[in-house]
Write a structure and sequence with these properties.
Elements (H helix, E strand, L loop, with lengths): L1 H31 L8 H22 L20 H30 L3 E3 L2 E2 H5 L1 H15 L5 H20 L7 H14 L6 H13 L9 H16 L6 H14 L2 H13 L5 H17 L2 H18 L4 H11 L10 H10 L3 H24 L13 H15 L1 H10 L5 H19 L8 H31 L2 H12 L3 H18 L2 H18 L4 H15 L7 H10 L3 H24 L6
Antiparallel strand pairs: 1-2
Helix pairs in contact: 1-2, 1-19, 1-20, 2-5, 2-20, 3-5, 3-6, 3-8, 3-9, 7-8, 8-9, 8-20, 9-20, 10-19, 10-20, 11-12, 11-17, 12-13, 12-16, 13-14, 13-25, 14-25, 14-26, 15-23, 16-24, 16-26, 18-19, 20-23, 21-23, 22-24, 23-24, 24-26, 25-26
Length: 598
């Protein structure tokens, strides 16, 4: 039966990606020609993004790739019994089962009071993926928890028990002692592999159930968590995330890195320190397109590291540069964190990309200038060869213009963000499959599944982080923080300094996506109180989180680099620390001298 379920999920994933890529392109054609238009196309794409989020999370669960802070997956189908893993398994399955049961009531309400997102497509059907997806995640978590049938049975039965308890025991966490014991226990499980979205959902459940209500039951309140996930994931611009990510994955599977590397070396090789510049530009390109700095390190590390060593750079410098450059590029279009920030903060993503462009270039230059003093270039200059440069431009011409096409279509008004992403996928398929033939049509389904794994892991974090944020807003936490700051900080400069420190810490301990959803609603009122422009705040926020990726001791890129290059953590710390301080200077300049950039 498991094979049939996996096959069904795969085919459903292919179908969903087909819809969200083709429908926006059809809308463009209908605007500029007599081509037919699809009724409620945008609403369908938005809700298919919801489906992709949960279907992708199911695939991530069965592949042991739900995002967590540990490197080794805790759901590994091992027959070995470990108490820490057993607790993580029970806790994860319990939370997911509770969420799935709670949302059935919302589906029932939608069924009783029908509404439609498009002709013949009722709202209840669009929302049904939430309980269905959660039940499939629950099933996959159990199947991957152990190869021992008895142990899987115990886990499944124990995970159902909390839902039964919540039916008969209303508001079991109204005691502050019990509440904080549960919170501490959940957070401690992170160290043993608890998926991040499980923690966020659990915290939301705990805090919602800590405040008794006369009008709602336990499951009424818990259902609002999944409802928050629904509302954020069907945002108009969020569909761009899976589409841009698919384009990035298609490019990552091609030989684009080799062609761009040859292009940059032929055209820029005569510049002192050109290898550093090439590494920074390539990493920024991939990070902006894939939305994840970890993908950049894992995909390009094996190519760029030997090139730096061959060009005379030390192993320490090369490690530090690649680890650092892996998080550069999150302010360039079509950066996924920038899109998510825009959705959360209610600002125009195009305005953020426009005003964030110069600060992003400045951060690239900071790293490049530091690289210039790392070694002598007198013996390593490469004479410019016009024929070689022209040849490299011809070889990579289809891919060189990708950033230009993105920027032109976005800022000219030719296409919306989602439509631009869909056009990019069609363009990349044409280039990589037909022109360069790096990818075959038979390989595309596998790439879609790999892409959906990342997309599902990210979107489900966003959704349930929004559920936790919903509690914070209901409890007026942002207002309380604002009052505290008003009474303790009077200087805008001091506030910005405190903000830098806070965001560095957050960048270390949280992934960028959940950090945006949880933290932005808390700090936005504070920034407004001190007269900080919303776009400037967005640039500060994203630049600090970029830096958080390489902040010792727990920056995410440090662990990924250690894994990719098989180096111990002290070696990675020593290699990245100089780059950390250089980039810290750049972030502080962006923070305190905004008029220098825009």
């Amino acid at each position: 039966m498991n094979d049939y379920i996996n096959r069904f999920v795969n085919y459903l994933c292919y179908f969903l990606f087909f819809i969200i890529v083709t429908f926006p392109v059809i809308q463009i054609l209908s605007r500029f020609s007599n081509f037919f238009s699809i009724p409620a196309s945008q609403e369908i794409v938005q809700h298919m993004t919801l489906w992709i989020g949960f279907v992708g999370a199911v695939i991530a669960a069965r592949s042991n790739k739900l995002l967590s802070i540990v490197r080794e997956p805790v759901f590994d189908s091992s027959s070995e019994f470990k108490l820490s893993k057993f607790l993580v398994h029970i806790f994860s399955c319990s939370v997911v089962f509770i969420l799935s049961v709670s949302y059935l009531k919302m589906i029932q309400i939608s069924f009783q009071y029908p509404d439609y997102i498009a002709p013949f497509i009722p709202l209840w059907f669009a929302q049904s993926i939430i309980p269905l997806g959660l039940m499939l995640i629950w099933y996959q978590l159990i199947m991957t928890s152990s190869s021992n049938f008895k142990l899987r049975t115990i886990i499944s039965l124990l995970s159902i028990l909390p839902a039964i308890i919540l039916i008969y025991w209303q508001f079991p966490l109204s005691s502050p002692f019990l509440l904080w014991m549960k919170v501490i226990f959940a957070i401690s499980l992170l160290a043993f592999g608890l998926p991040i979205f499980i923690l966020l959902a659990a915290l939301a459940i705990f805090f919602f159930l800590s405040e008794p209500s006369e009008w709602a039951t336990n499951f009424d309140l818990i259902s609002t968590i999944s409802d928050s996930a629904y509302r954020i994931v069907v945002s108009p611009t969020l569909a761009a995330i899976p589409i841009f990510t698919l384009a990035g994955y298609l490019l990552a599977e091609s030989n684009i890195s080799e062609r761009l590397l040859h292009f940059f070396k032929s055209c820029l090789g005569w510049i002192p320190g050109s290898t550093v510049l090439i590494v920074v530009l390539l990493c920024a390109f991939f990070t902006a397109l894939t939305g994840g700095s970890g993908v950049t390190i894992l995909a390009l590390g094996a190519i760029l590291y030997p090139i730096l060593i061959e060009d005379g750079y030390s192993k320490k410098f090369s490690l530090g540069l690649i680890t650092t450059a892996g998080s550069i590029g999150l302010l360039f279009p079509p950066s996924l964190p920038a899109i998510i920030y825009s959705v959360t903060a209610g600002i125009n993503p195009l305005d953020l990309f426009k005003q964030g462009f110069l600060p992003a270039v400045f951060l690239l230059l900071v790293v490049f200038v530091y690289g210039l003093q790392s070694k002598s270039f007198s013996s390593n200059k490469h004479a410019f060869n016009f024929k070689s440069a022209v040849k490299s431009i011809k070889e990579a011409s289809w891919e060189i213009i990708i950033p230009i096409l993105i920027i032109a279509s976005l800022f000219s008004g030719f296409a919306t963000l989602v439509e631009c992403a869909a056009l990019l996928v069609f363009y990349v398929v044409l280039v990589e499959v037909v022109v360069y033939k790096d990818i075959t049509f038979e390989e595309i389904p596998k790439i879609i599944i790999n892409c959906s794994t990342l997309v599902g892991g990210v979107l489900i974090i966003l959704g349930f982080a929004m559920g936790f944020t919903g509690y914070l807003v209901d409890a007026q936490v942002p207002l309380k923080i604002l009052h505290f700051v008003q009474s303790s900080i009077s200087s805008k400069i001091i506030f910005l300094l405190a903000l830098n420190i806070l965001l560095l810490i957050i960048g270390c301990i949280m992934d960028v996506f959940s950090a945006i959803i949880v933290v932005v609603p808390l700090i936005a009122p504070l920034a407004s109180y001190f007269g900080i422009d919303p776009i400037h705040l967005a640039i500060i926020f994203i630049a600090n989180l970029e830096l958080g990726y390489i902040t010792p001791p727990v920056g995410m890129n440090l662990y990924l680099s250690s894994y990719r290059f098989e180096k111990d953590m002290p070696t990675i710390y020593a290699a990245t620390l100089p780059f950390f301080f250089i980039r810290l200077i750049g972030v502080l300049m962006i923070t305190y001298i905004p008029l220098f950039f825009y």
